[in-house]
Specification:
CATH class of one domain: Mainly Beta
Number of helices: 3
Radius of gyration: 66 Å
Helix content: 10-25%
Strand content: 25-35%
Order of helices and strands: HHEEEEEEEEEHE
Distance between the termini: 167 Å
Number of strands: 10
Strand order of the largest sheet: 2-1-10-5-8
Length: 239
C-alpha cells in the first residue's frame, strides 16, 4: 500500500503536461452564446436639429381651406325671462354748461310803461304829469299814446280815483270799438279800473280817453283832484 501512494501525483503531473501541450498545438470547440444581458440606461439627449422649411404658398393653401359663404340666419329664439330689477345706479356726472342765454336790451324784447295823470279837469290823457316807468320809451308822453315797436301780446290797464263820476276808455287802432268803463259817484271817492289784452304789431297804437259826453254838466265843471294811472307791458313776443 505504501508503494502506491505516489501514483496520483504522477497522474496529475501527466495531465498537466498534456493540457499545456494541447493549448499550444490544438484549438478547442466554440462555446455557446451567452444569455441576453439586462437593458442598459437611457442615453443623453441629442443635439437640437435645424429648423425645417415653412413650405410654399401652395402648401399653405393645402393646409388652410377657403372661406365658406355666410350661412342663413337662424330662427329667433324664445324670449328669456325678465330678470330682477337691479339696484339704482350712482348719480351721473353734471352735464356741461349750456350756451349763454340771449341778453335783452332796450331795443330787444322789453316794453313796459306806467304813467300818471293828476289834474282837476277832463282834458285828453295827452297831458301826462309824470312817467314812473317807460322802458324803453315806447309810451310818448307828448301825445299820451303807446306806440308798439315789438310785435307781440300786451296787457293794458288803468286805475282812477275821483270824487265824481268818471268814464274812461281804452282805445286802439286794432279795436273796432272803444272799451269804455264808467263809475257813477254816489258820494265819496270812486275807484275805477279796467284792462285788456291786445295782440299788436309794430306801429299799432293804444291810448286812454275820458268821455265828458257821458257825464253831467256838474261833473265836467268839477275841479276836485282826479288821479289816473295808465299801465302797459309786453307779455310775450310774436313767433
Amino acid at each position: 500500500m505504501r508503494g502506491f501512494s505516489h501514483l496520483p501525483v504522477f497522474v496529475g503531473v501527466a495531465w498537466l503536461f498534456s493540457g499545456v501541450q494541447c493549448d499550444v498545438s490544438c484549438k478547442g470547440t466554440d462555446g455557446h452564446p451567452g444569455e441576453a444581458g439586462a437593458p442598459g440606461r437611457n442615453g443623453w439627449p441629442g443635439v437640437k436639429g435645424d429648423k425645417g422649411d415653412a413650405g410654399g404658398s401652395d402648401v399653405l393653401l393645402r393646409i388652410k381651406g377657403e372661406k365658406g359663404s355666410r350661412g342663413e340666419q337662424g330662427d329667433l329664439g324664445p324670449k328669456g325671462y325678465q330678470g330682477d330689477l337691479g339696484s339704482p345706479g350712482l348719480p351721473g356726472k353734471p352735464g356741461l354748461p349750456g350756451p349763454d342765454g340771449k341778453r335783452s336790451d332796450q331795443d330787444g324784447d322789453q316794453s313796459a310803461f306806467s304813467v300818471i295823470r293828476n289834474i282837476t279837469t277832463y282834458p285828453s290823457f295827452s297831458q301826462v304829469q309824470s312817467d314812473v316807468v317807460n322802458i324803453p320809451g315806447h309810451f310818448k308822453t307828448s301825445t299820451g299814446e303807446f306806440i308798439c315797436n315789438i310785435s307781440g301780446v300786451y296787457y293794458f290797464n288803468f286805475h282812477s280815483v275821483a270824487k265824481v263820476s268818471v268814464c274812461l276808455a281804452i282805445v286802439s287802432n286794432t279795436l273796432e270799438n272803444k272799451l269804455v268803463f264808467c263809475d257813477y259817484s254816489k258820494g265819496g271817492e270812486q275807484v275805477l279800473s279796467g284792462g285788456v289784452v291786445l295782440q299788436l304789431t309794430a306801429g299799432d297804437k293804444v291810448w286812454l280817453e275820458s268821455h265828458r259826453d257821458l257825464q253831467g254838466a256838474n261833473v265836467n265843471a268839477d275841479t276836485q283832484s282826479k288821479q289816473i294811472i295808465f299801465n302797459g307791458f309786453l307779455i310775450f313776443t310774436a313767433q
